[in-house]
Design brief:
The chain is mainly beta and about 80 residues long. Helix content is about 10%, strand content about 45%. It has one domain: SH3 type barrels (Roll).
């Protein structure tokens, strides 16, 4: 299934101010509130936490470069 760039942008915009989960290239898993993004998938998260380990580590507000992100898990849409 191929999703066009504008569809991805719409999907991301619909999930602003919601908690998302990111898998990074360095094997870290980060969870936080999506505040902003751009066409390169650079993301700004608030209240971010590194949830890779058993005990989550708070890291606060963070800007992640899009090329460091392997996967993004968005919240389920409410029906």
């Amino acid at each position: 299934m191929i999703i066009m760039a504008d569809e991805i942008s719409t999907l991301m915009a619909n999930n602003k101010d919601k908690v998302i989960l990111l898998r990074l290239r360095n094997s870290k898993t980060i969870q936080g509130i999506l505040k902003d993004f751009d066409i390169h998938m650079n993301l700004t998260l608030e209240n971010a936490e590194d949830v890779s380990e058993e005990k989550p580590e708070k890291i606060g507000t963070v800007l992640l470069r899009g090329d460091n992100i392997l996967a993004i898990s968005l919240p389920k849409e409410e029906s």
